[in-house]
Amino acid sequence: MDIRGIDHIELHVGDLQSAARLMERGFGFRSRGHGGPETGLAGQRCRLLTQGDIRLLLSTGLTAEHPATGYVRRHGDGVAVLALEVADAAGAYAELVARGATPVTPPRTFTGADAEVVTAEVGGVGDVRHRLVERRGDRADFLPGVVEPVPAAADGQLLAEVDHLAVCLPPGALDATVARYEHVFGFRPVFAERVEVAGQAMNSTVVRDASARVTLVLLEPDTGARPGQLDAFLAAHHGAGVQHLALRTDDIVAAVGALTARGVRFAGTPAAYYDDLPRRVGAFDAPLNRLRELGILVDRDHGGHLLQIFTESTHPRRTLFWEVIERRGARTFGSGNIQALYEAKERELATAGEDPVVVAGRAGGMPV
Fold first, then answer.
1. Nearest to residue 48, comparing CAs of 62, 36, 34, 61?
2. In what order do the strands lie in the sheet with 215-221?
3. Residue 186, Cβ neighbours under 10 Å: how many?
4. Contact 200/227 with Cβ under 8 angstroms?
5. What CATH code is carried by the domain that includes residue 112?
6. Under DSSP, is residue 278 helix (H, G, I), strand (E, B) or coil?
7. Side-chain half-sphere CA neighbours of 42 within 13 A
8. Which pLDDT belongs to residue 193?
9. Residue 339 pLDDT greater than 80, yes or no
10. Counting beta carbons within 10 angstroms of the beta carbon of residue 110, is it exposed (0 to 12), middle (13 to 18) or buried (19 or more)?
11. Which of 48, 62, 248, 356 falls 20 to 30 Å from 147 in CA-CA distance?
12. Domain count of the chain?
């Protein structure tokens, strides 16, 4: 199967207008298309939003029976489809099903004046599906005859592309999920680690397709340790799912400054974190005072530096959130920041006379 990258990501949401407004006004996405019963989408409405090479399809169900309605009822707003661009959707579908993938939607062709798109769907993790998308002709026509294009001004491209998706799995499911992505989808494990801090622990394995354009960070809580944020996600989400979506930028300082001005709220970083930063990660080309002001985190691996920051979740269940990431040669995912953040918070709380383990528990888990 020839995977060429991420075609788009579909989120099922309860309030389409509110979700689209957040992504447009807050994150700088532009509306590029819409669909509904009038365009052939029975029982649902959708909005296509784009920025850089990122395409997000927001969908909401209009009836109780529609799959999007059921998804939101079970999980809240979240990622329901990771769509993969392939050379041959029908062939990829047959190959995946033969390898053991769960068939969801057989190949279907959408034809327009200048484009033809073939799609098919198989099961992924939990209720997340993988949509196989083959595009012929005008690539700007997202889904001919179903999603009607909307003219829009060029965006400022604060965000360039999807860097990775972090997927939270139930305890004990990590090894089987990695094996399934290897055997069925042809992904390969590229990085694995165990993180322990403040009595909490998690295991993670990163899998990536052959094109190196699709990266999944698979996360599993350790039930032998104290419950943390992954346990909280699984309980609120009612099972496995995408915990956060990481969007890459070429200039994180400019992007986070602009997003903050637009009203996007990011998770706070202890001031003490920056006191030890130069010693921990070495010299880096970014103004320390500005990083401190914005709350941007820095990590280092053998390839270089990684700058990242996480948003607060805007959902009632406190599940899905977003990461903004800039890679300066680094290929890993910032796990060094977990320990550094905890130690920084520990120093601050010790000064205030509080127990950091108790505070971490009140916060709902590992401080990442």
1. 34
2. 188-197, 200-208, 215-221, 161-168, 241-248, 321-328, 304-310, 297-301
3. 15
4. yes
5. 3.10.180.10
6. helix
7. 1
8. 92
9. no
10. middle
11. 248
12. 2
For 140-198, the pLDDT digits (tens) are: 789 998 999 988 776 668 999 999 999 999 999 999 999 999 999 999 999 999 988 87
Residue 228 and residue 237 in contact, taking contact as beta carbons nearer than 8 Å: no
Q: Can you tell me which residue has the tokens 């888990």?
A: 365
Query: Are 252 and 331 within one domain?
Result: yes
- Cα separation, 168 vs 177, whole angstroms: 11
Alpha carbon distances (Å) from 227 to 108, 192, 193, 197? 44, 21, 18, 12
Q: Give the whole-angstrom CA distance, residue 50 versus residue 31.
A: 7
Residue-number span of the structural domain to which 41 is assigned: 3-149
How many helices and strands (H and E) does the chain possess? 10, 17
Residue 94 has pLDDT above 90, yes or no: yes
**Tens digit of pLDDT for each residue in 205-241?**
999 999 999 999 999 999 888 888 899 999 999 999 9
Q: Which amino acid is at 145?
A: G
The dihedral formed by the CA atoms of 5, 11, 17 and 20, expressed in degrees to the nearest 10: -30
3-state secondary structure of 40: coil
Q: b/e for 330-349, b at 16 or more Cβ within 10 A? A: bebbbbbbbbbbbbbbbbbb
Q: Residue with structure tokens 């322990």?
A: 196
- The answer on 299 and 355 residing in a single domain is yes
Which distant-in-sequence residues (6+ apart) come within 8 Å of 33 by Cβ?
A: 47, 48, 142, 143, 147, 148, 149, 150
pLDDT tens by residue, 276-329: 899 999 988 889 999 999 999 999 999 999 999 999 988 888 899 999 999 999
Dist. CA 235–CA 316, nearest whole Å: 13
Closest C-alpha among 8, 50, 13 to residue 29: 50
**Region label for 245, one of left (φ > 0), alpha (ψ between -120 and 50) or beta (otherwise):** beta
At residue 268, does pLDDT exceed 90?
no
Average pLDDT over residues 331-349: 77
* Residue where a domain terminates, one of 120, 149, 178: 149
**Torsion sign, CA atoms 75, 341, 311, 352:** positive
pLDDT at 344 over 80: no
